[in-house]
Each structure stands twice: as structure tokens, then as C-alpha cells.
Amino acid sequence: MKAGASVQTVNIADALSQRAKEQPYTPAIFSPSGFDGQARRRYVHWTYSELDGKSDAIAAGLSHYGLHRGARVALMVPPSLDFFALVFGLFKAGVAPVLIDPGIGTKPLKICLAESEPEGFIGIAAAQAARTVLGWARGHSKVNITVGGGWFGPKLADLIELGQRRLDRGDWKVEPTSPAELAAILFTSGSTGIPKGAMYSHGNFAAQVQMIGRAYDIEAGEVDLPTFPPFALFDPALGMTTVLPEMDFRRPASVDPERIREAIEGFGVTNMFGSPALLNTASRWAVDEGVRFSTLRRVISAGAPVPTEVLARTRQMMAPEGKIHTPYGATESLPVASIESREVLEDTGAQTLVGGGVCVGLPVAPAQVRIIEICDEPIASWSDASELAQGEIGEITVASPTVTSGYWGRPHQSELAKITELIDGQACLVHRMGDVGYRDAQGRVWFCGRKSQRVQTSDGPLYTSQIEAVFNRHPDVYRTALVGIGAVGHQHPVLCVELAPGTSPNQRQLFGQLADIAKSTPLTAAIETFIIHPGFPVDIRHNAKIGREALGKWAAKQVSR
């Protein structure tokens, strides 16, 4: 590097500080906080200036406890004002928060914490108690800070007080992190195994903000209702005010629609993120009650394919000109592609119902999506991958500035998920999505299922999303799940069926009707075994991804009886 040349720095928290300068008194976050004397929901809020100031104090105080740039800190605090101040404070200090869904269970959570080796643990009293009793992060976490009450070491209030003193002395500034520097470790939902810690850089986050803002025409001044709180971390950079709903974020499918209504109507919400399971619950209620939210002009839904009937109902609860975007991606790279509801309802949805897979839309610029021949082994170099032609089903890959570098503490999993490609002499990473699909003549991406969940019969592979959609048309069926029983390469396909709520069809008659559907197309002709399941296991993050691995074990026992 030439003398005097500047080094590029990117800290994703800079966006919050810039917003605080431009509109210091604009509310940044509203959070529910009990009820008033007339049993009405009460909210507390911080302005952009207050959120920026609190996160500054947190960042400045971390060094007092020995947490410096490059450290990792497990963060187990529910969505709240403190949660957002802590995340941005950690970013500003160059300390990487480790975020894990608490609903994964104590054993997997302990494994994830052991892998990430956090030097610090910041959590509410209940999380600190669990850490102490269950040995979470034992041997690694030297600094344990409690949010709220409790007797587990220093309090967040102490940290903020110490940091504020440092700020008053004027001897602190935001760490000048580089684009490639670790910003956070975000664990996957673990829908197909133990969650993996995706390593996010500050550059990854900055690219996500730009891509999301451009793709969905988000404007400063909008009001966002994020029913998956991590999405709210983009709001300050996009100029949106965040309204946290009153709900159990671990169980979005069980949301109380009245709480959603209260937030949308009370704050004039214009943008909402919701998983397909949450939208299913909320839209059923809204249609039954005849509710339409006139301010809601954009809904973003991710986590799993959104059924066409859910899209149609959700449109009925929005402003007529409103749009529903369903971005496709993963924790390791988001967004990858996106499609709007009108295109699904007027075009691609019909192809889904006859086994075409789920269209997830065109790639979101500058993401480059390519389909390669399915392979279950590592692919070190792009020159070793076999790219497929239009219409051929294979593994979906993406090259994008949002592609994370790998998984913390999981070198083999990183090798399986990443391919190195030389572009203009520079090594770039391509992420293997772990999904199968194809590109159509218009360049759109079609999702056919998870690679690990394909059923490998002696006559060839069967892909879950292609097969299931054909049977989901039956009026007594809520959803289906294709699983394979037996040795790989000679698996017997079994269709697990979850009945629609309120239905109790004759089982023999239902199975006969499903068998007739199977015979209607060569794609499904091999499906001859059907089993009714009382309620599919789903992922803990969005309540939308079906746990086909667990269903496969259950189905094997049922068939063997």
C-alpha cells in the first residue's frame, strides 16, 4: 500500500449515528411495556438520538470489563430497547454478538455456545441462571453482565454508567472496523440439524442494507413491524421506525392477531415482516373479521415458501395497492432472489400446483444465481463444479456481497457450503444454498426442495416441494411432507399428511383420492403410501420449515407396524 493511502472502514452501526444526526428526535423503537389505567397497551420508546447515545455508552463501557475489538459476546436478551442498544453497542466496539435462538433447546444451545467460545455473556437473569446451572460457555466466558435484576455479576446499568463517564471525558470513538472484519455470529435455525454459526462481516451487513432498500423501495419515515426481530436491525439504516409487537417471537404461528392489529393501527405501520406461519394465522383472522389495514403497503415474508392461498388472504388485509414480497435466501446469504405476490397469483402459482416447484423470482442485484449438478461432497473450486443449463434441476448457488465467509468452528461444514471462484484474479466465495431448483427462460429461480431432503429412489430422485404441492390442492389437506424410507438410492417414498383444521375425512376415502391424484401425473406416480400425522414438527425460528428428518423416522416406524 502506498504511503498515505487510506484504509477502507465500514462499521454497520455508523448508519444509526448518521440517522441520529439527521433526525435526532424521530422515534427509533417502540416497545410494549404493560398497560395503562384503562387496560390499554402502553409503549415506551427511544428516539434515534437516545438509541445512539445508549449504544455509545455501552460500547465505551465494554473495555472496562476487558471486552475489546475482536471479542465475541453471547447475547441472550429478548427483543426490547436494551436488546437493540446492546447490538449496536457491540458493533460500535468491534465486538461480535453471538445470536442463537433460545427455542432450540438447552442441549443444542450449549453446543452452539461451546463452539462459538464467547469471551462474554450478556443476558437477562433467567439466561444467566441457566448459564450457571447448565454450564453454558463454561471455560470461555469471563465477563457475565446481567440485564435487569438478579445477582449474576455486573449489571447493564453499571456498564452504561461507566461508559457514559468515558464519553464525558471524550476519550472514546467507534472502532474503525474493516469490511471483512467479523461483525456477528448468527446461528442458523437448525431445521436440518444442529444450528451452525454463520460469520457475518460488517461488509455483509452493509450490502444487505443496500440490497433490501433498493429491492423493496423502502423510504425514510416508514414504520416497520418486525415479527422476526433481527430484521429490525436494518431499520435505522433504512430510516424506518421500529414497532415491536406484543408476541412470543419463538412461536410466530401462535400470534394473537389482535396484538398485530393493535400495533398496525396504533402506529400506522407501513412495512411488516412475517413468516408464512404468522401470515397464515393473521390473514385467516383478518379475512374472517373483515379487517383491512389501510396503511400497510408492504409485507415481506421469508423462512419457507408462502402458499398461494396465504398470499391471497394477506392481500385482502392490506391496502389495495399493497405488495407482498417473498425474498429467497438463507442466514448465510440474504436476499438471493425475490418475487411479488401478483406474479405468483397470476402466473407462477398455477405451475407450482402441477409440480413445477416454487418460483422465488429473479435474483436481487448484484447476486448471481447459478445451478450446478447435485453433489453431496465439498467442491473446492468453481472449475470443479458442473453448471447446468436452463430448466435442469440441480443445486442452487449464489455469488453475492452478502455471502458469509463460513461457519464458526465448523471447518468441514464450511467446506461443504462454499466454493472458491477466481474473478479478475481475486478469490471470491460462492455459497451452496443446500437447495435444489432450476432457472426458467425468464431467468427466474424455481425452488424444488432441500438437497438433503430429496428422496432417492431406484428410479431417481424426488424433490419435496415439487411433489407436495400437487397433493396440497386437496381441500381436506393442510399440508403434506414427502419422506423416504430405506437405503439411500432405493428409498420408498411416503407422503405424510396433516389435515386441514376442522376436517375429519374418512381415511380410506381420503387415501383413495390422494392415490388418484398421484396417478394424474408421472411426477407423482411413485407415491403410493400415505400416513396421517397429527401435526408436523417445524423449525423454531419461523414455525414454517417442516422437520422432514424427524417425520422420516416416525414414518418408518408407522410403515413397519
Description:
With 561 residues, the chain is α/β, with parallel strands linked by helices. 32% of the residues lie in helices and 25% in strands. The chain is globular and about 75 Å long. The strands form 5 sheets. Strands 14, 15, 16, 17, 18, 19, 20 and 21 form an 8-stranded antiparallel β-sheet that branches. Strands 2-1-10-9-11-12-13 form a 7-stranded mixed β-sheet. The model is unreliable at 1-5 (pLDDT under 50).
How confident is the prediction overall: mean pLDDT? 93
Write down how many β-strands occur, each being a DSSP E stretch of 2 or more residues. 26
Residue share in β-strands: 25-35%
Backbone structural class: alpha/beta
Radius of gyration using CA atoms only: 24 Å
The biggest beta sheet reads:
8 strands, antiparallel
**Structure annotation, total helices:** 16
Anisotropy-based shape:
globular
